[in-house]
Amino acid sequence: MKKSNPLHFFIFFTLVCGAAQAQYVQPRLVLGGDAALFRISLGNFEQVYTSRWGESYAAFAGIRLFAGNYLMLKAQSFEQQGREGTHPVSGRDLTGATWRQKWYNIGLRVHPPLVRKWQSYYGFGVALFDADEEPGLSVFTAAGQEKEQGRGSGFYLELGIEYFPAQRLAGYFEMGISSGGIRGKSGHESFSIGGFRFALGISWWPI
């Protein structure tokens, strides 16, 4: 009986592993959306509005740059209604107040290959904010500040956990932290129109 050569086994094992890796290609595109609870960081927000907590919705798209790194664009929204009482500056009824906020995350998401049922990912980048209020019912003038446009820029961080019932379809839970100061300046904590976001959503990897 001919004795087997360990080198032959090593070559065979290497070829099998290489073929298995070649069969998997990281998807180039990811799409998705979610619903979330958002808590705005602006400290004096409840002087005009009912709560710092509210519903938030998002949609996103990402394209693979290299390996498991994706360039991501995510659009999010948050609205809140006015509380009972009168505005301390204008004297108008606060129930007519409405906060309408949109913000956009542009950054990098690091995602492992889609080969397991449970996965995790993280991302970071720049956040751009825009918030509108009813004239005469601004949360900024209520705090004795000059009237602001509610625009800001800052940063965001995100961390998510996914479950894949199918190879390219996943449900996920995501926690995001963002910071964006008014007048285009980065904000911290009570001066920020960013905040904490806890989301449940679906992602799809079509190609």
Q: What structural category do the secondary elements indicate?
A: mainly beta
> What value does the Rg take, in angstroms?
24 Å
Q: Whole-Å distance between the termini? A: 50 Å
Please name the CATH architecture.
Beta Barrel
Number of domains: 1
Query: How many DSSP H or I helices?
Result: 2
**Class, according to the CATH hierarchy?**
Mainly Beta
Q: Unreliable segments (pLDDT under 50, ≥5 consecutive)? A: 13-22
Mean pLDDT: 86
CATH fold annotation? Porin
The largest beta-sheet arranges its strands as 1-2-3-4-5-6-7-8
Q: How is the quaternary structure best described?
A: single chain
Give a count of the beta strands, DSSP E runs of length 2 or more. Answer: 8
Helix and strand sequence: HEEEEEHEEE
Question: How much strand?
Answer: over 45%
Fraction in helix: 10-25%
Outline type: elongated
How can the largest sheet be summarized?
A: 8 strands, antiparallel, barrel
